[in-house]
Specification:
Number of domains: 2
Strand content: 5-15%
Strand order of the largest sheet: 1-2-3
Number of helices: 6
Oligomer: single chain
Distance between the termini: 70 Å
Helix content: 40-55%
Shape: elongated
């Protein structure tokens, strides 16, 4: 967001340079004041970014911005009621860890490894997911799962 009532300063130009290769929308604020016509400024034109002129003081309607964000990021395509969304990086990493342990457990089973080895990965899966849900995995749960397997035969 740039102050459209003043010419670009050094910091503004640095920001424009920074966003050149990034998804961005340039907001020119304070259009209710004396305009500097920043949309015609070479530095802004050179970014090839969408430019929106707004006034947060006199007309805080941001529908134009919302529409451009929707176009840029496909927000209307996100249907939270139909999909699972992970919005927490820590949860995403824990799920990825759990998936890696699933792959390891599957490989151990395919390699005919002892069930004790497989159980290590199963326990790791449950612990990773338990860190998200807040549930702790006890040894009793692990024993119950593996009581269904026949060991040593």
């Amino acid at each position: 967001m740039f102050d459209n009532s003043k010419p670009l300063n050094k910091e503004d130009k640095e920001i424009l340079e920074f966003i050149k290769n990034k998804k961005a929308i340039i907001l020119l604020n304070k259009i209710d004041l004396k305009e500097s016509n920043l949309e015609k400024c070479k530095e802004i034109i050179d970014t090839n970014k969408k430019v929106l002129k707004i006034s947060l003081a006199s007309e805080p309607n941001l529908n134009g911005l919302y529409n451009e964000l929707d176009i840029m990021f496909g927000l209307s395509e996100i249907m939270p009621e139909n999909e699972i969304m992970i919005t927490n990086i820590r949860h995403k990493e824990l799920i990825e860890d759990a998936l890696n342990h699933v792959r390891e457990a599957k490989k151990s089973l395919e390699d005919n490894m002892p069930i004790d080895i497989v159980s290590i990965n199963i326990k790791e899966i449950m612990q990773d997911l338990g860190k998200i849900t807040g549930d702790n995995v006890s040894e009793d749960v692990i024993k119950e799962i593996f009581s269904k397997f026949c060991l040593g035969k």
